[in-house]
Specification:
5-stranded mixed beta sheet, 3-stranded antiparallel beta sheet, elongated
């Protein structure tokens, strides 16, 4: 389970119910990610956000994206509108399908997955209701979980993944391998375990605080603009370095700026040299741009 314990800020009772059921019923051959967020490069807009309530992976079966909707669920075909407890909600099947293709695009950016067939499917969970009656054509019963199946999640996950494998067989069987190593590579993308810790700090309290701060980067993965305030030594630089490192590993060209020369030197030394990860002070960036466009540049007479 990633995370290994349910986060305290989870508000959806349906997600809480499903998290616990997955944790209790699935064997160790399954890997479950909860509340996953990612970004995909987009040549026109710079980046595109993606998210999923659950991502489940299993060797020899593949990857399953699960969108969860709680409460009393109903669908109005005349208005083409879904409802939860009489409140209108987004089409869960479109959400799950969009998330599937978004994650697929993200994986295709990485060398490990670029030339491989990725068995991936999507499903929707309605854990508080029993599904009866007809639904839209993009909502076949095979990809729906309702309350009657909560006690057989292992069988349900396997059946859904086998359903998608049958719908989308590999074009090249020699590249259809999805094994334990594939799951490890997926973990590197969704929940990287390695963490950047600042040097010369060994006390446990500081390390615990650092892990809490890094979790903020996970939580804010799909927020484009964020303002973080804190006193000196509270970890703002660490957050900036970790965010820059993650974006760089995703293939983005990253610019990290600050005002202080010493801080810029420290950050450069911390990440070593990486392609497309650029660290400058504000004035050094201005100087670089002025020289690039052959403009006159007069550096400040003083300052750090």
């Amino acid at each position: 389970m990633f995370p290994e314990k349910l986060r305290s800020d989870v508000k959806s009772n349906a997600e809480k119910l499903l998290y616990k059921a997955l944790q209790e019923q699935l064997s160790d051959s399954f890997t479950v990610f909860h509340q996953v967020r990612w970004q995909v490069r987009n040549l026109r807009n710079g980046a595109r956000d993606g998210e999923a309530d659950f991502v489940i992976a299993c060797p020899n079966l593949g990857i399953l994206i699960v969108e969860v909707k709680g409460g009393e669920i109903r669908y109005n075909g005349r208005a083409d509108q879904w409802y939860s407890n009489n409140d209108s909600v987004k089409d869960p099947f479109k959400q799950a399908c969009d998330s599937k293709y978004s994650l697929l695009s993200r994986l295709r950016e990485l060398s490990f997955w670029k030339n491989s067939w990725i068995p991936i499917g999507h499903a929707v969970a309605f854990p508080n209701v029993e599904v009866n009656g007809s639904l839209p054509l993009d909502a076949p019963r095979e990809i729906i979980l309702d309350c009657t199946q909560l006690n057989n999640l292992s069988g349900w996950v396997q059946a859904v993944l086998n359903y998608w494998r049958g719908q989308n067989p590999p074009q090249n069987p020699s590249r259809s391998k999805f094994d334990a190593n594939s799951v490890k590579e997926l973990i590197k993308v969704i929940a990287p375990i390695d963490r950047v810790l600042p040097p010369r700090h060994n006390d446990d309290a500081f390390k615990d605080l650092t892990e809490q701060q890094i979790s903020i980067v996970d939580f804010l993965a799909n927020h484009r603009r964020v303002a973080i305030s804190g006193c000196a030594g509270s970890g703002k630089t660490l957050l900036a370095l970790e965010k820059a490192r993650r974006l760089n590993e995703q293939g983005f060209s990253v610019l990290l700026t600050c005002y202080n020369k010493g801080l810029a030197t420290f950050m450069s030394q911390s990440v070593n040299w990486k392609p497309n990860l650029h660290i400058y002070t504000f004035h050094a960036l201005c100087e670089k741009l002025f020289k690039k466009y052959a403009w006159t540049y007069s550096p400040p007479s003083s300052g750090s």
